[in-house]
């Protein structure tokens, strides 16, 4: 019984370390493309629990287990150099390939 408890505790600790909490980065640190303004931003686990988001990810060939960072929904580019603003959540994402419908690997940024 103690072995099971120790194993489960170690597994949970590993998961916690493997999933760091997203933190705000300066917009200037975004090197993967334009800063995005997303209407909604979810963690991978929240996206997995949302059937609509899960279907969208499947349609673009993204497995939810492969997602690191946040998932942004209904995103549009922001011209940071031009003093762009975002009334929702500004993020920097590693994959914006779907024309703003869904972006993956996002990190919140400060404008």
From TrEMBL:
<keyword id="KW-0964">Secreted</keyword>
<dbReference type="GO" id="GO:0005199">
    <property type="term" value="F:structural constituent of cell wall"/>
</dbReference>
<keyword id="KW-1015">Disulfide bond</keyword>
<dbReference type="GO" id="GO:0009277">
    <property type="term" value="C:fungal-type cell wall"/>
</dbReference>
<dbReference type="InterPro" id="IPR001338">
    <property type="entry name" value="Class_I_Hydrophobin"/>
</dbReference>
<comment type="subunit">
    <text>Self-assembles to form functional amyloid fibrils called rodlets. Self-assembly into fibrillar rodlets occurs spontaneously at hydrophobic:hydrophilic interfaces and the rodlets further associate laterally to form amphipathic monolayers.</text>
</comment>
<dbReference type="Pfam" id="PF01185">
    <property type="entry name" value="Hydrophobin"/>
</dbReference>
<keyword id="KW-0732">Signal</keyword>
<feature type="signal peptide">
    <location>
        <begin position="1"/>
        <end position="18"/>
    </location>
</feature>
<keyword id="KW-0134">Cell wall</keyword>
<comment type="similarity">
    <text>Belongs to the fungal hydrophobin family.</text>
</comment>
<protein>
    <recommendedName>
        <fullName>Hydrophobin</fullName>
    </recommendedName>
</protein>
């Amino acid at each position: 019984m103690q072995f099971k408890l120790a194993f489960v505790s170690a597994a949970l600790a590993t998961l916690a370390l493997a999933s760091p909490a997203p933190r705000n980065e300066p917009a200037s640190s975004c090197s993967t493309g334009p800063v995005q303004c997303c209407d909604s931003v979810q963690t991978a686990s929240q996206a997995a629990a949302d059937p609509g988001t899960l279907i969208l990810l499947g349609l673009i060939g993204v497995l939810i287990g492969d997602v690191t960072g946040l998932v942004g929904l209904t995103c549009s580019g922001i011209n940071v150099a031009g003093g762009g603003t975002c009334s929702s959540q500004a993020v920097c994402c590693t994959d914006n390939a779907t024309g703003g419908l869904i972006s993956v690997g996002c990190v919140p940024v400060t404008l």
